[in-house]
């Protein structure tokens, strides 16, 4: 088996794909639309974003609405990456379990993800 795709539920697939495209530089899939958008990695992995009506954003670290999925991205400079992602529309939860090694952020649909010093 080979992992070929990771898909996140969200209220606006094109907007969430645009956030991650700006954050990562990955290429948008040419068949992306308002119901399903995707980005493609050089190794063939696809990150997809599918429309879910009445999507409930995770409430990390509270588990009332669990995180559902967690992505990690390696970066050279934590402070620089955090600042750039916040400018792109990421959020930053108050709870930061190990802020010297990684930062927990949330994408515009509320999914938590980490940037990790590489």
Polypeptide structure, described:
With 118 residues, the chain is of the alpha/beta class. Helices cover 19% and strands 30% of the residues. The strands form two sheets. It has a four-stranded mixed beta sheet with strand order 1-4-3-2, with helices on one face. The mean pLDDT is 92.
Ordered list of secondary-structure elements with their pairings:
Elements: E1 5-10, H1 13-24, E2 27-28, E3 36-40, E4 46-51, E5 71-75, H2 78-88, E6 102-106, E7 112-117
Parallel strand pairs: 1-4, 5-7
Antiparallel strand pairs: 2-3, 3-4, 6-7
Q: Biggest sheet, open or closed, and with what strands and sense?
A: 4 strands, mixed
Order of helices and strands: EHEEEEHEE
The portion of residues assigned to helices is 10-25%
How much β-strand is present in the residues?
25-35%
Low-confidence stretches: none
Q: Kindly state the mean pLDDT as a whole number?
A: 92
Main sheet strand line-up: 1-4-3-2
Q: Radius of gyration in whole Å, from Cα? A: 14 Å
Class derived from helix and strand content? alpha/beta
Q: How many beta-strand segments?
A: 7
